[in-house]
Amino acid sequence: MINLINADCTEALKQIPDNSIDLILTDPPYNIANFCNDRQSNIHTMRPNHFAQSSWDKFDNKGFDTLMSDFLSQAQRVLRRGGGAIIFTSVQRINELISLSKNTSLYYKTTGIWHKTNPMPRNMKYHFVSSIEPWLYFVNDKRTGTFNNNGKAIHDHIECAVASKRERAQGTHPTQKPENLLTQLINILSNEGDTILDPFMGSGSTGVVCKRENRNFIGIELNENYYNIAQKRIEQG
To answer: Distance (Å, rounded) from C-alpha 145 to C-alpha 64?
Structure first.
């Protein structure tokens, strides 16, 4: 089952039944565009659709907190008990999101890291190249949930390359996550036949992987252009 919705996630989430989702895997706005634009950097020489030039990543603090509070409230409602949530974020937002989650039944498990083995060499003339991106792991209303480690210790960081040239050509989203990264998280934290939700779908990478890995998928995306790209990618995937 694939269900794609072109709407604001805070409204679309209200239409999803209680306790119907096994895993939320999503990459919401980080609200760091203004921060990046104010720093000494070579950001203006980057590709035209870099996230720092996107209006969807620019909020005042109150607006961002409201968006994330509404999202987390709906997330805990739609997740089954023991359902997991992986939320990508920025280093600057980790404490903020953990604090907001305390108003819900989401139990904070850990902060993990995606280490990009081939990051864009942005700002290399000014400081260390940014090569990590955090994700927060929550379980709803329980201390543990699905965790398919097959008897092996799984570290709280994943190393892999950024989205390939082929994936970027299909997706074109400025914060597109690589399918390899999503595949690992989906296989660890869900089972075949589970339903996975991405309320900030972008160009549909999570949906592409869910279809390939025999998971049901619900994707929500506000931007009509990215919604159409996601629809095409998932249909062809």
So the answer is: 28
Full set of structural domains in the chain with CATH? 2-25+59-119+132-236 (3.40.50.150)
Q: Which long-range contacts (CB under 8 A, 24 or more apart) does 211-219 make?
A: 211/2, 211/237, 212/183, 212/237, 213/183, 213/186, 213/187, 215/186, 215/190, 216/1, 216/2, 217/1, 217/2, 217/3, 218/3, 218/4, 218/5, 218/16, 218/21, 219/2, 219/3, 219/4, 219/5
The answer to whether 228 and 61 have CB atoms below 8 angstroms apart is no
pLDDT tens for residues 165-199?
777 776 677 778 999 999 999 999 999 999 999 99
* pLDDT tens-place string over residues 47-91: 455 444 455 445 566 778 889 999 999 999 999 999 999 999 998
Q: How many Cα atoms occupy the beta-carbon half-sphere of 15 within 13 Å?
A: 13
* H/E element, 131: none
